[in-house]
Design a protein that fits this description.
The structure holds two protein chains of two kinds.
Chain A: H1 3-31, H2 36-44, H3 49-73, H4 82-99, H5 104-133, H6 137-159, E1 161-163, E2 166-168, H7 196-211, H8 213-223, H9 225-230, H10 235-252, H11 255-262, H12 273-283, H13 288-305, H14 308-312, H15 317-352, H16 356-362
Antiparallel strand pairs in A: 1-2
Helix pairs in contact in A: 1-15, 3-7, 3-10, 3-12, 3-13, 4-5, 4-6, 4-10, 4-12, 5-6, 5-10, 7-8, 12-13, 13-15
Chain B: E1 12-23, E2 26-37, E3 41-46, H1 52-59, E4 67-72, E5 75-77, H2 82-87, E6 90-93, H3 105-110, H4 114-117, H5 121-133, H6 149-162, E7 167-171, H7 179-194, E8 198-202, H8 206-212, E9 215-220, E10 223-228, H9 235-243, E11 261-271, E12 277-287, E13 291-295, H10 302-310, E14 317-322, E15 325-326, H11 332-337, E16 340-343, H12 347-351, H13 358-363, E17 373-374, E18 377-378, H14 380-393, H15 410-421, E19 428-432, H16 440-455, E20 459-463, H17 467-473, E21 476-481, E22 484-489, H18 496-504
Parallel strand pairs in B: 3-8, 3-9, 6-7, 7-8, 13-20, 13-21, 16-19, 19-20
Antiparallel strand pairs in B: 1-2, 1-4, 4-5, 9-10, 11-12, 11-14, 14-15, 17-18, 21-22
The chains are: A mainly alpha, B alpha/beta.
The structure holds adenosine-5'-triphosphate and magnesium ion (MG).
Magnesium ion binds at residues 52-53, 409-410 of chain B.
Subcellular location (chain A): Cell membrane
Organism (chain A): Nocardioides guangzhouensis
InterPro entries (chain A): ABC_transp_permease
Chain lengths: 363, 510
Amino acid sequence: MNPAKRIGLAVAAPVLAFAIAGIFASALLAVTGNDVAGFWDTMLTWPENRQLVNILNQTGILYLSGLAAAIGFRMNLFNIGVEGQYRIGTFVAAVVAGEAWLPGKANTLLAIVLAMVAGALWAGIAGLLRVTRGVSEVISTIMLNSIAGLLVGYLVAKVGVTTGVSTGTKTIPEESWVGGIQIFGDTPTELYGLVLLAIVAGVAFHVMLNNTTFGFNLRATGRSESAAVAAGVDVKRMVVTSMLLSGAVAGLIGMPVLFGQAHNYGTSFQLGIGFAGIAVALLGRNHPVGIALGALVFSFLAEQGNVLNILVGVSPDIVAVTQGIILLAVVIAYEFVRRYRLRLEQSSVAEQVAGPATEEAKA
Amino acid sequence: MTSLAPAPSTTDAVRVTGIGKRFPGVIANHDISFTIPAGTIHAIVGENGAGKSTLMKILYGVQKPDEGSIEVQGEKVSFSTPSDAIARGIGMVFQHFQLADNLTVLENVVLGAEKLHGIGGDARAKIEEISSQYGFGLDPDELVETLGVGERQRVEILKVLYRGARIVILDEPTAVLVPQEVDALFDNLRELKAEGHTLIFISHKLDEVLKIADDITVIRRGTTVDTVKPADVTSRKLAELMVGSELPSPSTEESTVTDRVELEVRGLEVVDAAGRPVLSDIDLTIHRGEVLGIAGVEGNGQTELVEAIVGMLHPSAGTMRLGDQDISSWHTRKRRENGIGFIPEDRHRHGLLLEAPLWENRILGHQTRPPSVKGGWLNRRGAREDTERIISQYDVRTPGPDTTAGALSGGNQQKFIVGREMSSEPVLLIASHPTRGVDVGAQAQIWDHIREARRNGLAVLLISADLDELIGLSDTIEVILRGRLVGTFDPQTVTPQDLGSAMTGAGEEK
Ligand SMILES: Nc1ncnc2c1ncn2[C@@H]1O[C@H](COP(=O)(O)OP(=O)(O)OP(=O)(O)O)[C@@H](O)[C@H]1O
Ligand SMILES: [Mg+2]
């Protein structure tokens, strides 16, 4: 198969998925008596520069979340707990940075490192429970999510400061903030400085997975645990280590907003990103580039959907539904394209080989 | 080639014409045609990757052919699933048994076929009837986990007959059996034939094929080259038909055993989950340059012995030394890094990542050593190049290192694993059935590779159900029975019959 054809096939699956999702979403809107044309008009309008920056910011954040989930998925560990690890990590960073034990950017660095440590430890609990007690990580991480919510809520109320109607951690001193990057001159909305963490994490993930023994062991365990054991992989240690790694990345999710905009942990904390990350990882098939595209699509839909209600009177919930449909459609489309590719390869083999029977006759 | 196109007749159980099947990069079957008269035993032979299993899967409806037609009892058929084939009276026994260990014979047989005779008295009566009719000697209430390999196989055959099969396909049924069990199986097959059943079976053991088959179809590179009668050929001639070249003759060799101990096992004991011993008082010594063969009927502790030495299983007592180091507390990885090569008995569970390309499978088990790593990083290029080397040195039939392991034929997967485990100069090779499912030509090649490594000081623990292999390769043979080593034999003087009776405990217990 020539390279152009191969790339064409690789793009075919997602395109097909979006087409399927588009058809279903339209049908849904039509059946519920909504303005289908208006919906598409809004969704497909090229975003304003301000919105573009928002989309990029959200993409970076979702990407970190998707990576955290993907690390577990790659070895068949279903870490549903990214949300909880993200909360704990962000809270710890906010408290540490708010206390400002170190000056300036050293304070920032310390807070980020501790956010990763906190996220890792929180995820590590689930890893330990699994290897010592055989508790499924799905169950334990779901429970750890709600514990994280309650615990952080309680601690914020206890150690937090109340300004006006909202309670939150102490505001981080301005010298420890991380400034934004201005992309467009005509809008004050800036790219969070720490969104660049997503790129660093993505590259690290790729290198770890493909170029290290650890990454090989991770993938091998995901493909066949019994074969990994026979190959000398310490599966228990792998479970704990990858949960720690997954949690550490989850700890990073909140950093761009914390140091770029919120400056404390309080009511503006963005919920649900940990769960969205799971969907993004699935959409991107746990591949570093795929996850980035998945994050971009989800962010784009969410940003565009914000104004649906105002402009065409459609509830933005339709966006969440569309995101769900895309996920399903992706699964179908990948299978479809895989079969098609197999058929193509087979027929090209048949063309190449004149037929072994004639060759045998000579022998 | 006269038998390729006889006149259509309703006495033909199966008639396939022009069957073709392609996989990515491979033509598995091409223009396959042959006829099987009803009430005969038909053997299919051919090299690894020749396309035998694919053909059988097509006959049983597991895979759909790209072209060609199949007639069963004179009627044209087209199967989409195995149930279509079963409805036409075709049954298949796969090489890997598909039985639930914790269920009884009765439960295993009726599972999925409850509609036929229910699950109670009728079913039991039917099972007892089949069992006695063909001399299977199976007790419906016995738990499958307590059965030996030969009995399990009979359960598989019973399952197929219970579902009304008149045509039974057996994919390499004798690979796991010791000679006595093979004889018993053949008696069963003859009974079945006498009752009018048609049997199709695949085997790499040509002597057996000549003994039992009425007709033999030879497949080479995906296509039928001939159908012959056993009376007209010798096993040598058959092998030549298969490969298109001469059969290598087994070579006897000078002993290369040195007096330096490589592996020493003392007082090894392993208990199962219920605390019953599955291995007791195992003492073993293997010197550099020595092949120690373990003979035994499958399920007598060989698996546990191997897993204990590789470190996948924790013994309850005993010590192990490799060279001058005590390895008892070492993890599998450390043992492998120190030169233990491992050819597992179950290549799918323990030897391969079926969905991964071959070059990644080259790394498996060698993650921390060259050529898989270089300067702390995974060395993809080194792994690929070494995969190419294994493919050519061990004659693995595949398009290349990017093919997924699962796409290789059984025998070619085995050749690849052997090649991998012989890489990086192991000091000790734990080889469980190293040539299981491998054709005669490749078997001789693998033996040569092992002999050569032995000359250079490799110590080998060889476990095999193939007694000729054990006798031909080993310097010493130990017999294992119910988790104990019960006798030592000299391969120079022992006969397969002697070994066979020691393995089944005949003459000693009764
Ligand atoms: N699912 C698959 N995908 C791709 N290729 C396949 C698949 N199954 C079989 N093949 C290829 O088809 C060819 C024939 O395989 P098959 O398993 O029929 O061989 P075989 O004669 O049974 O060999 P063996 O004696 O080693 O079991 C091989 O080259 C194999 O690699
Ligand atoms: Mg086969």
